[in-house]
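Regression check, manganese (II) ion case 309:
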Amino acid sequence: MINIVFELDDKFARHCAAVIVSVMKNHTIASAEDRIHFFLLCNLTEENREKLLSLKQTWDFEISFINVDETLFAKLPLDNNSPTLYYRLLIPEILPENVEKIIHLDSDLILNADIKRLWDIKLDGYLIAAVLDEPKINRKKTYINAGVVVYNIKALKEFGFCKKWRDYADVLPQGVKLQYYDQDILNYIIDERVLFLEPNWNVEKYNLSLLTGGNLENLGTLIYSLNIIHYTTQSKPWLPFSEHPLKHLYIKCAKLTPWGNQAGEHSFFERMVYLSKLLLKFWIVHPLFFFKAKFWARVKEYGFVETII
Ligand SMILES: [Mn+2]
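Current build output:
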């Protein structure tokens, strides 16, 4: 059995469904070992659960919904984000006893290869396997992206992962800022025994142009080497004005979900409402933006919407 875990709230149910479709579409079940069990850490409405379950009419997989007690994260900073982003910290202790290994996937990505190829990578003594992220100031060179991670649950239990992050949360000063929340914690706690995966297992903004040589419009057969596309930017493929060069891969899968009819289509009204909200948010942060030459230079280079996103 191949185990996959997601964490999500009601807003992301539809995007998680698109990921499930993308996993199944690219997967061949040759034997019982290849069957997939999805574990969803979530507190979803009945309606959203039913819709996710209805995918079983088309695809052959197992699915379990696991409720999460959000008070467990009371000591961690959230700002205005959903506590969902911390659910993954529970992975080593919230799953059934017999799950010794699991692939964690974000709900803002799309599989473009058979997940079995990732599953078959041997973890041996490693705690996790993941892809390197962009090294920024104050971030270590071996900083990993938390969107696609293979967890060696047995090893993480022995390592005491859950105790370690709770101890860490206990000493966090009030009002502290974690720039990337759960991802910063994961990188802080796990500083050793990380198996670095090939970048094509988590193709995000940072490594997309590195892998494609910058030629994003005309990828040709190169597209087949991008195993997982992770839409990490603000410009998610389901939003109006998204300019992600691989947004069509998301839309193709989203159309095959119970939410899918209008995936990727936005009426003029929706686009205007979205643009007004963006503009307002931007204006609050940069009230004098229209006086700044730098702003207009960016508009010229990237376009107005991309600049204010
Ligand atoms: Mn993500």
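Comparison notes: The CA atoms of residues 40 and 65 lie 5 Å apart. The radius of gyration is 20 Å. No diff flagged against the previous build.
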